[in-house]
Structures are given as C-alpha cells and as structure tokens.
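Can't paste images in this forum, so I'm doing it all in text. The chain is below; anyone willing to post the predicted structure tokens underneath?
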Amino acid sequence: MRPTKSPSDVSPVGAAEISQRLGVKPRTVHTWRQGKLMPPPRWTVSGQPAWDWATIEAWARRTGRMSGAHPHAALLELEGSGWRGDLDEMRRNRVSRR
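Text version of the structure:
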C-alpha cells in the first residue's frame, strides 16, 4: 500500500506554473494536455485544471521534459560568485554554425 500524502505535502499547480517551472510556453502545456501526454489533473480550481507538482515533476523527469538542472543554473551560479563577464560580448564573439 502506498503511503498517503499529508495535506502539507501537496503543491497544486496550474498550467501557468507548469510552463514556468518547465521553461516552456503555456501553449505547450495545453498541447500536452489535449494530446493526453501528461497526467490528468487532480483538481479543478475556478474551472481550470490543477495538478500536484510532485506528480508533474516525476512525469516531466521520466519523459525527458525536465532535466536535472535549470538551463540557466550555471549562469546564476557564476553571477552569485561575483563573475563580471559580459554576456553580450560573448554572444557577439561566438562562432556561427552553418
């Protein structure tokens, strides 16, 4: 038998929060839902679907829609360490792929 989650373990999220946390456009979340690619919503809040974040996170990791780290985590780490690089300069000097 699976242990039951306590109410404090539940974290409801809507499509907007899912898109933000997974770094995709809101329309992508709606497309996944319409295509029955994601778990069904657990609740309806004000007429809108809502999911438990733990369920969505597990699904996103399992299906490759969420990697272990946020795509900008390395830059945020550099910024927090006092790095003074110029991202615009780096972009101007990168080699284009053709």
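The mean pLDDT is 80. The helical segments are 15-22, 26-34, 53-62, 73-80, 87-93.
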